[in-house]
Design brief:
about 40% helix; single chain; 10 helices; globular; 6 strands; two-stranded antiparallel sheet; alpha+beta; binds iron/sulfur cluster; about 10% strand
C-alpha cells in the first residue's frame, strides 16, 4: 500500500510504460507536471535546450502554493485544453520522456488515485511553507483525499500548526500607526 512517505523507487515499481486510449483521454483536457530530471530527459529526447523547451512548450501550474512546470495546453477561452504533446491519431508524442505525473497516471489500476495523491503530497505540498500547509488543511477539511502518513500533523509540528492558524507568515511587522503619524 502506498503512503505519503513511500519512496519514488517503490512508487515507480507500480507504474508501467503502457499506452492506450483510456489513459490518453485526459490529455485532451490537461497535462501532467515535470519534476526531478524530467526536463533534462525531455531536452535529450527532443534534441532542444531546456530553455527552449521551457519557452516553447511549458507553463506553470500551481497547487498548494507550489508552482511546477507542465506542457502547455490549448485552452483558448476554456479553463482546460489539449496538451501540446498530444496527437489524436498517435497519442503522446513524448511518451518515452513524458513528465513524471503523466507516467504515474494509471487510469485502469485500482491504486491509480493513490498514485496521483502521492504525487501531490510529495511535489505540490511543501511542509516548509506555511501557506502550502494552510491550503492543504483547507483541502482536507473540504473532503480532499490523502494517504496514510499524510495528515496535516505528519507534515507540521506544533509551532508550524500555530503559524498556520495565526497566519503569522502573512503578517508584516510594519507599525502602520507610526508610519501614518498617528502615534
Ligand atoms: S494504465 Fe491501463 S488504461 Fe492506462 S495505458 Fe496502461 S493499460 Fe491503458
Ligand atoms: S505529455 Fe503526453 S501523457 Fe502527458 S498530458 Fe501530454 S500528451 Fe498526455
Amino acid at each position: 500500500m502506498l503512503t505519503a512517505k513511500s519512496k519514488i523507487e517503490n512508487v515507480m515499481k507500480l507504474v508501467y510504460p503502457c499506452r492506450c486510449p483510456a489513459c490518453e483521454n485526459p490529455c485532451n483536457y490537461g497535462s501532467g507536471s515535470l519534476v526531478g530530471d524530467d526536463l533534462k530527459r525531455l531536452s535529450e529526447f527532443l534534441g532542444e535546450s531546456e530553455q527552449d523547451i521551457k519557452e516553447k512548450y511549458l507553463e506553470e501550474k500551481e497547487k498548494f502554493n507550489t508552482k511546477l512546470l507542465r506542457p502547455k495546453t490549448e485552452k483558448g477561452n476554456k479553463p482546460y485544453g489539449k496538451c501540446v504533446f498530444y496527437d489524436k491519431s498517435n497519442g503522446c508524442k513524448i511518451h518515452e520522456a513524458k513528465p513524471t505525473e503523466c507516467k504515474i497516471s494509471m487510469g485502469c489500476k485500482p491504486y491509480g488515485e493513490e498514485l496521483i495523491t502521492w504525487f501531490d503530497l510529495n511535489y505540490h505540498l511543501n511542509p516548509k511553507d506555511p501557506e502550502s500547509l494552510r491550503q492543504f488543511k483547507i483541502y482536507l477539511e473540504s473532503g480532499g483525499k490523502s494517504l496514510p502518513e499524510g495528515e496535516l500533523n505528519d507534515f507540521a509540528d506544533e509551532n508550524m500548526l500555530k503559524k498556520i492558524e495565526n497566519y503569522e507568515d502573512l503578517k508584516d511587522n510594519t507599525d502602520w500607526e507610526k508610519l501614518l503619524g498617528l502615534k
